[in-house]
Amino acid sequence: MAGDAREGEDAGARFSSYVNRWRDSIDAALLGGLALGVSKDLRGFYHRPLMEFLARGGKRTRPALVLLGCEVEGGNPTRALGAAAAVEHFQAAALIHDDIADHAATRRGEPAVHVREGEGLAITIGDGALVESFLDILGSRGLSPELQLELIGELSEMMMRTVEGQALDVGWARDARFDLSPDDYLEMATLKTAHYSVATPLVMGALIAGAPEAHVEALREAGLSLGLAFQIADDLLDLEGSVEVLGKEPLGDIAEGKRTLALTYALEGLDEELGAELTTILDAEDASKAQIERAASLIREGGGVERARAKAEGLAKGASEVLEALELGEGDAALALRSLPHYVLERTH
Prior knowledge:
The chain contains 18 helices and 2 strands. The protein is mostly helical. It has a single domain (about 5-345), classed as Farnesyl Diphosphate Synthase (Orthogonal Bundle), CATH 1.10.600. The protein has a two-stranded antiparallel sheet with strand order 1-2. Strand 1 and strand 2 (about 110) form a beta hairpin. The longest helix is centred in the middle third of the chain and has 30 residues, at about 145-175. The protein starts with a helix and ends with a helix.
C-alpha cells in the first residue's frame, strides 16, 4: 500500500494519535452546546440522558475526520469543531434509534438509552440529537451563511443516504431475505455507513478550509472507499474479535441475523445444503450459542472471512492511492490522513 515506507511500524497509529489529540476539544463542543438553564424535568427527560450518552464515549473518529479534512487542506481545525459536533450528534441519534430497532439491551457497556429511559423518550432523545446536528453548524462562529448552507446540504445528503442504507438493512431482515449478492451488500453498506463514517466528515472539513473542488471530490472518493472498508472491518471484528476488543459478546451479528459481506460471500461458496443450514440459523429468533458458533464456522468454511478481508484491503489500497495523488506533503495532518487506510485495516485482524 502506498505510504508504507514512510509510516513503517506506526501503521494507523498516526491517525489514532490525531483523534486523541482533539478528543477533549470535540467533547467540549458536543457537551457545551446542550442547555443547562432549563427546568428540572426537561433536564431529566432530555438533556441529561443525551449528555450521559455522549459522555459515555465512542472513539470520536468521525468528528476527528472533520477536523483532519480541514487541517490537511490548510484550514484552522478549530473552525470546524461545530461541524465535527454535528457529525457526532448524528452518530448518537443513529445509535439510539438503531438500538431500539435491534432490541439491543446495551451500548458502550451500559444499558441502552431505551432501556434506561423507555422507548418513547429514547426516540425523542434521538430526534433531538438530529436537531442538535443542524444547530451545531448554524451556531458555528466565523462561518459565512453561504458556507453554513453548503455544510447543511452535505449533512442532509449524508443523513438521507444513511437512512436509505438502514431501510435496506432493516427491510432485508424483516423479509428474511438471503437472496442477496455481495454487490447488494456493498450498495447497502456504502449508503448506510460509508458516507457518514468517513466521506462526508472529510468533505465538510475540506469545505471549511476552502479546498479546491478537485480536492474535495478526491477526499469524497477516498472516504467512500474507506467508509466501506470500515464497515466490512467492523463486520469481521464481530466474527473474529473478543469481548475485550468489542466491549460486548462477539458473534452478535449472527445472533441478530444481520447481512454482512462475509455472509454473502459464504453463501456463494457453500453448497446448497450447508447454505440452507446457515440461513436457517440466521433466521432463527433464538439460536443457541452452539448454533451461532456453527454459523460462524460455516461463514469461514465458505470463504466469507477471507474474501471479505481481501475486499477491505483492496478498498483501502485504492483509497490510499487517491490520497497519495493529492500530494498533501509531510505535515502531521497529511501523515495522519495517509495512515487512515492502515487504521481501518487494523480492525480486520
